[in-house]
């Protein structure tokens, strides 16, 4: 039996009584606390988040997490993506747990690190830049074909990570 008690609680809109502004502020603060303000590391290397600002003066990576960048209505909050913001740092910190399937793929010129939890339908993606990692994205996996794709990739490229 797999143990997911190490994952922090979700940040839900319902817990904020439907107050979207309060909810967004809470999500953004969690993003800042976990990924920007703290020293998030993986394998002894720092994990950096792009500081590019976008809508409402919030970091572009935040908007990338809470919306679907492939949707024609990218301004719509995807709650299954957004509520899992607290999981990102937890997955990075606990990448060696058996629940997290970690694998690397060289795409273009980047070595991408995938931290995948199939049972929770959740993915964190980082780029290995040698002396540091750059945070790319994290999201709830909405489609079964994507789960099958990540399962195939893990069988092909995992579980070895260059330490």
Describe the protein in words:
The protein is α+β, with helices and mostly antiparallel strands. The protein has one domain (14-157). 32% of the residues lie in helices and 22% in strands. The chain has five helices and six strands, in the order H-E-E-H-H-H-E-E-E-E-H. It has helices at 20-37, 60-66, 79-82, 85-93, 144-157; strands at residues 41-42, 45-48, 101-107, 110-117, 122-128, 133-140. The protein has a six-stranded mixed sheet, sandwiched between helices. Helix 1 (20-37) packs parallel to helix 4.
Summarize, please.
32% of the residues lie in helices and 22% in strands. With 163 residues, it is α+β, with helices and mostly antiparallel strands.
Task: Report the helical percentage.
Answer: 25-40%
Rounded radius of gyration (Å): 15 Å
SSE-based structural type: alpha+beta
Shape verdict: globular
How many domains? The number is 1
Count of DSSP-assigned helices: 5
Roughly what is the average pLDDT, rounded to an integer? 90
Quote the distance from N terminus to C terminus.
28 Å
Beta strands, count: 6
Main sheet properties? 6 strands, mixed
Strand line-up of the largest beta sheet = 1-2-6-5-4-3
Low-confidence stretches: none
What's the SSE pattern? HEEHHHEEEEH
**Which band does the percent of strand residues land in?**
15-25%
Annotate the secondary structure layout.
Blueprint (H helix, E strand, L loop, with lengths): L19 H18 L3 E2 L2 E4 L11 H7 L12 H4 L2 H9 L7 E7 L2 E8 L4 E7 L4 E8 L3 H14 L6
Parallel strand pairs: 2-6
Antiparallel strand pairs: 1-2, 3-4, 4-5, 5-6
